[in-house]
Amino acid sequence: VLVATTLICMIAFLSVASWALVSPRQKPELICLVEAEYMAPAIPLVRYGLQDGQLIRSLSRSSLKLVEGISRTTADDTGPINKQFFEHQLDQLQGDTCVIYIAAQGVSDEADGYLLHRASHQSQFGSGFSLTDLLAAIETHGVKNVLLLLDTVRVDRSVQLGMLGNDFSYYLKRDFEVLRQRAEKEPDLPNLCIICSADDGQISAPPPGLATSPFALTTAYALQGGPGSKVTKGADQNLDGRISALEIAEYVERAISDWSLEHQQTPQTPFHLHLGEDFPLVFVDHMVTLDSVLAHAFPPEDKKKKDASANGTKHPTQENAPAEKK
Question: pLDDT per residue over 221-273, tens digit each?
Fold first, then answer.
């Protein structure tokens, strides 16, 4: 047991040390965008959106480099999530690889899917950030490898919004297919992996007892190098010591699908869309657990009690969290 523990510690140390030797341009950069509150009263809040943003931003303490000064997690930051703001953030990237996390209300009308920003009108979704513009911005801004995490399907239908059904996931697949067909003629398009938190007819919502979305927690676990108790069932599928975008996608899909069947009355099955080649993101860290991910993002209760009271929420716990494979 002592020998095994020593070996695991040595592997974790060597992984961190080897990553430190990677040039800054090769280190993945992180953009975290959360639109938690809306001015229009009919648009629901993104429940625990600020906590999700804090959880994802904590990844900058691991293998990912947070793009400072442009990522936002509160309504008081630099601007709404729209085309201009998003393109400005992409302009700030210095490396070849980035992870983009977006938590916002994702809705649809008869034309497209949209990410609503805080000033969006409740009856004019076209004023939001369309999926067409989102994918076009990623396509044209010169980043070689992009992992796009969309925790955006937070409402299925809403009479107040005049939306009898939310086809956000459908339009995401449709717009991505247009991009894929264009890639057949233009081979220089970026390698792109998109993971959406829920499929058609489903929603992504945190259950009671877990003050963060299962999607945010599971992706944070994988992006910190969490392998699960058995590496073959964790995010590192090919046992090369690194976790790629597709491995993260497959892991998140499996973990949340299994969790939803056990803890929810309705299924939640994330799906991924992939264009181009797979690309590595982080090294496996055998010391990472769901508990350590939460502790990393949220300091002890005595240090954060004031902030939690101000938000009217309690701290995340591992209760009802997507379980690590044992």
Answer: 999 888 763 344 566 666 678 889 999 999 999 998 888 888 777 788 899 99
d(CA 146, CA 158): 32
Q: What is the CA radius of gyration of the chain?
A: 19
pLDDT digits (tens, 9 = 90+) for 162-208: 555 578 888 999 999 999 998 888 878 899 999 999 887 777 766 66
How far is Cα 53 from Cα 232, in angstroms, rounded to an integer? 29
* Inter-helix orientation angle 214-223/49-57, to 10°: 0
